[in-house]
Amino acid sequence: MKQVFPKADAERAIGNVFAAARGRLPGAGPVAKIRARAFEVYERTGLPHRRMEDWKYTDLRALIGEVLPLAPRPDAEALVRAKVSAEQVSGDQAVKLVLVDGIFAPELSDLGRLENEVVVRSLREVLENSATGAMAGLVLSTTSDPAISLNAAMATDGLVITVADGNAVKCPIQIVHVATGLSVSTFTRSYLQLGKGAHAAIVETFVPAGGASGYQANDAIIVLVGDEASLSHIRVAADASDAVNISSAIIAVGARAKLDLFSMTCSGSISRYQGFITLAGEGTKLSANGVNLIRDKLHADTTIVVDHAVPHCTSREKFRAVVDDCGRSVFQGRIVVRPAARKTDATLTTRALLLSDQAEADNKPELEILADDVTCGHGATSGALDDTLVFYLRARGLSETDAQSLLIKAFLGELIEEITSENLRDFVTAQAEHWLQAGR
Amino acid sequence: MALLEIRHLHVGVEDREVLRGLDLNVNAGEVHAIMGPNGSGKSTLSHVIAGKPGYEITRGQILFRGENLLRMEPNERAAKGVFLAFQYPVEIPGVTTMNFLRAALNAQRKARGQQEFSTPEFLKRVRQVAGSLNIPQDMLKRGVNVGFSGGEKKRNEILQMALVEPSLCILDEIDSGLDIDALRIVASGINALRAPERAMIIITHYRRLLDHIVPDVVHVMSKGRIMKSGGKELALELEASGYAQFEHAA
């Protein structure tokens, strides 16, 4: 439902949602204080709107109007539905950790298959059992953004994952977010800490259970990648077509590390994925790739900010959008090169494929270079499928739909091919194929 | 019944008439060469037979084994056995030649109600044909025509043609951009496909190609029509006298 609420009404509504939820949020004392403060910060702006530069293409105040009441704890029936969806999106070999309506569901998760070097706790457990309040920092907001502040105030649960120094985790860890409700909101917040020299792959997926509709998911993940560590981080959002998903990733990477990010949004009425990546140690290599697959009247926004804080880091950011019908894709890519970050090598390219006359793609690449002696570049293109390519394929026997699908897959292929794990590559390919099939 | 029968074909592109009452009959087993100056409508003819969008057929018809070809989608025409070797083969980054060949071959087989090739069967066929055309294996793993030289692109067209085994091969200036050695390889690839059940239409500016692929019939095309047809000696005659006489005749 799209309605424009005057700010006062929207604010009153969210105030009520927070007041109603407060008693259910884990963590007393210092945690509760941080939550209240985060909420105050959120309230200063309210829902992000178009007059905020970072949100100008995704005006949540106009698009969603209000924050829905917090989802109730999933009952047995909801867990049964969630289990079906969680199993459908499970990657091969992945160790699943399932969050249902914002609450960790150990009974649906593969805790027994966790490798020894990996420690997983639920955020709720950590916040409730931290007598000293030392863990209160877990809900602290470090990045100033209303969606993240609201997440800090409202997070009901999440996962706190640590991988000890020097360990290579064999199986990918997959966080599966399943929504089962109708017109409710969920808030999840997770942490991943990868020790020095550790290697891991993490997958995040968002899916609805059968019957889920009109929900709003707000997720945040805070990731610390240690020196010489290597992380592959894959995210696939395939929410209900009338759902809202606002996800934030706040990532800090140490020295001589390697981080490969891949995020793909293939459904959801309004989606926003925002990644804030700080390269905090020298000699680190980042690849941050994103894909929006959009049709109908859906709106997907991918916003990536790469902050080169130190010298000698390399970042490669590539984005692709495929937009059909009246869909709207937004990509904002910002590269910041701090004064100290000499010898930075950063590039950003974005390409959009528009499959209909009404399809829209907004691309905003930005370079903010404050250092000398750097190599930075960006490029942006958008256009329709090339008719001569389509005809060539048809002249070789492919139907028009197959020719288009093959060209779309090729368009995405370059990014998907960069996923090094064959299993994860197949997983992402299958999700993209599923999207293509659904449009036929 | 001729394999291909074109009757009084009129075709326009953006309000300009490019083909103006073209007639052509091609029987199975024959190789026809169509020669003519730039702008005579040779490429348009090849595109219209293959079904490229953007042309307006105002009059006439094209029958393929007695069926109305103009009512078919390009992919249906391909499945029926029509193959166009492009003058300018396109580059398709992100799709490997191998995957492209498999998709094309299996789409055609499926449309004809035949079983798709198994992977080993397919690989064996590709290797065999690629070998005879001097196409190295690593070229097959690259994106379709991406970074290929002019000669490699044309050899890739012949590779596709050999794999799908069409009934009618239309070769649109397959000799353009080829040096002598590449021309010899391409021509011998084409000659290897000559068969009693298969016909070919070779579109070219130059006689040189016809020294390697000897045609049964030579047509001279000018201003959207076939002005003269004859045996292979017509090509020699053309080289001596040029196209000008036909342009005046029109």
Automatic annotation (TrEMBL), chain A:
Q: Which GO terms describe its biological process?
A: iron-sulfur cluster assembly
Q: Where is the signal peptide?
A: none
Against Pfam families, the record matches this protein to:
SUFBD_core, SufBD_N
The SUF system FeS cluster assembly SufBD core domain covers which part of the protein? Answer: 183-411
Domain SUF system FeS cluster assembly SufBD N-terminal positions: 31-175
Q: Which InterPro entries match?
A: Fe-S_cluster_assembly_SufBD, SUF_FeS_clus_asmbl_SufBD_core, SUF_FeS_clus_asmbl_SufBD_sf, SUF_FeS_clus_asmbl_SufD, SufBD_N
**Alphabetized PANTHER family for the sequence:** PROTEIN ABCI7, CHLOROPLASTIC
Family as reported in the entry's similarity comment: Belongs to the iron-sulfur cluster assembly SufBD family.
Q: By what name is this protein known?
A: Fe-S cluster assembly protein SufD
From TrEMBL, chain B:
Sorted keywords for this record are: ATP-binding, Nucleotide-binding
Please give the PROSITE patterns that the UniProt record associates with this protein: ABC_TRANSPORTER_1 (PS00211), ABC_TRANSPORTER_2 (PS50893)
Q: Name one Pfam family in it.
A: ABC_tran
> In its keyword annotation, does this UniProt entry include ATP-binding?
yes
**Which SMART domains does this chain map to?**
AAA (SM00382)
Q: What Gene3D superfamilies does UniProt report for this protein, alphabetically?
A: P-loop containing nucleotide triphosphate hydrolases
Under the heading CDD domains, the entry gives: ABC_FeS_Assembly (cd03217)
Per UniProt, residues of the ABC transporter domain are 4-248
Instruction: Report a single Gene Ontology molecular function.
Output: ATP binding
- InterPro entries from the xrefs? AAA+_ATPase, ABC_transporter-like_ATP-bd, ABC_transporter-like_CS, FeS-cluster_ATPase_SufC, P-loop_NTPase
Top-rank taxon, per record: Bacteria
Keyword Nucleotide-binding present in the record's keywords: the answer is: yes
- Function field: Involved in beta-(1-->2)glucan export. Transmembrane domains (TMD) form a pore in the inner membrane and the ATP-binding domain (NBD) is responsible for energy generation.
Instruction: Enumerate the PANTHER family for this protein.
Output: ABC TRANSPORTER I FAMILY MEMBER 6, CHLOROPLASTIC
Q: Spell out the family assignment given in the record's similarity comment.
A: Belongs to the ABC transporter superfamily. Ycf16 family.
Q: What is this protein called?
A: Fe-S cluster assembly ATP-binding protein
